[in-house]
Hints:
By secondary structure, this protein is α/β, with parallel strands linked by helices. It has helices at 55-73, 87-93, 104-117, 134-142; strands spanning 9-19, 26-36, 41-49, 79-84, 122-127.
Amino acid sequence: MARPPTGPLVVSFDASLRYVNDDTTPTSAAVGCVVTDGAETVATRSIAIDAFVSSSALELRALVEAARTVSTIATAVGAVHVNGDADAAVHAADPDHPSTPSTRLARRRVRTIRSCFAAIPVVTYRVVPRRENVRAHELANEGHSRHRC
């Protein structure tokens, strides 16, 4: 069995919605995340989401899954650096940012994210351009193939 990572870890997340031809009716949703130790991939997730309400809620769901992934694989991590291309999700989760989510669902997700990272001494959040979030984006898109109609 591989030794659990001790950090620092970099976690990237993304969400993906697919629409019918009118571009207003979503048909499937998925989230993805990748966790690296800076040099190697430690974990990846790609998940189809059956119930979703908005793209911003879906991005927060992606970050929840990323945080859960980190909490299950990392027992003694000194730092986690969270990267995402969804400003609202990154800012909502970052306790140093003055943003407060407006919905009860979003606030619950933020509490879950912070709880998953609570034992980690240093957690940073950064909004990155899509070109720096490519692998998480690919994993989110892969989740659509797991979607059951």
